[in-house]
Amino acid sequence: MRAVPKPVSIEALDACHRQMQIHLAELGSLARHIEAAGLDSVAAQQAAAIEAFFSTTSRQHHADEERQVFPPLLAGGEAELVTAVRTLQQDHGWIEENWIQLAPQLRALASGNGWVDPAEFQHDVEVFLDLVGGHIALEETLIYPASKALWAQAVADRDMPAQR
Q1: Is the pLDDT of residue 154 over 80?
Q2: Tell me, what's the pLDDT at 150?
Q3: 10-150: CATH architecture
Q4: What pLDDT score was predicted for residue 156?
Q5: DSSP string, 22-83
């Protein structure tokens, strides 16, 4: 019997994507609110929750993908998947770069500091929303299905009697 790689929990990754999409929608709403009405206690609480999620859960999600999802797809050598994975790895870097700009603004808003420029904040949020939204779409339409198929094939190969 052949060893099967540890299964990747695509369901858990999908669930995290759903959480991300909720937080992304809230981030967009927050940016519009800050631009239209300024900072209030509700916006400060929302900023704190969004910052905490993307600074912890989202970062761990990307680390999990880098460690569990991407390596088998890269090792498989299928050109389309390798290109997509390389794009997603680059996205992780761009997402992190954008987050480095956005997170301090959210922390400032969460602590009640009004120094955040609403137009700059709106711009940074729009960039983040576009980048993360496109990233999620590529993972869910191509990478996660390919990862599931790869794992299913490994299980099938394991269960087949060895050919002599």
Answers
A1: no
A2: 87
A3: Up-down Bundle (1.20)
A4: 73
A5: HHHHHHHHHHHHHHHH---HHHHHHHHHHHHHHHTHHHHHHHHIIIIIHHHHHHH--HHHHH
Take residue 72 and report the two structure tokens written for it. Answer: 């088998």
Q: Which two tokens stand for residue 161?
A: 């009697």
- Give which of 155, 149, 164, 163 is closest to 2, Cα–Cα: 155
Number of helices and strands in the chain (H, E): 7, 0
Residue 43: Cβ within 10 Å count: 19
d(CA 52, CA 23): 10
Chain Cα centroid distance, residue 51: 14
Among the residue ranges 1-5, 30-34, 56-60, 141-145, the one predicted with the least confidence is 1-5
Query: Where do the domains of the chain lie?
Result: 10-150
Q: Could you tell me which of 85, 73, 69 has the C-alpha nearest to residue 7?
A: 69
